[in-house]
């Protein structure tokens, strides 16, 4: 896939931020891969891929090497030089690398095994970090990291073969019913969730439907179909309308707030292709 002419300026703009944080490839000298949102390392590689940059491009190859340099022998990724390593960090790094076509790398194979080993009892993934204090809601896993884990796993041989992933899908489908904020980080399904965000950056209706559409366990489920219907109700003339993004992305042509996005619409039609083979 190559970048279409109308998106070249977007790609160049993203590349112009490469050294914003003091080192190359959108990171800091001490390799903080999620610092500087929305122009962090892990976010920018997704933007470039979404805009059509080939994974064999030297820029993405070097970015992949940078991300892999934070990999640990137990399968985790240390995306900050100090402090605890949380599952949400590992799934974000793994997901970026999988999007770059590296899911078969033996290091990521070990990461997949690690994630299956630490899966929480409710089927999701959960960080032992209680920023908002403790309560009944914090007994749950964190929905968005769970969704990102499923995003990474969809590139693997575990897709639609591993019962543990079906359990993760069920956890996320349950959240469609619960709706209220759950998990130590309080992910809910309120007004912000229902706003279509693109590119995929946070927990919202669009990425929720998109990722779940890859999983057979979700495709015929009433809750998934309700979410899909909610997404389709927000479309205009068969196109995805961007309802939310961060101000720093406001001038990018591929994701202008309030306008139809051709690339986002391609992701919607990918959802439909995923559903063609539902059983």
UniProtKB/TrEMBL annotation:
InterPro entries, per the entry: Terpenoid_cyclase/PrenylTrfase
SUPFAM superfamilies given in the database record: Terpenoid cyclases/Protein prenyltransferases
Protein name in the entry: Prenyltransferase
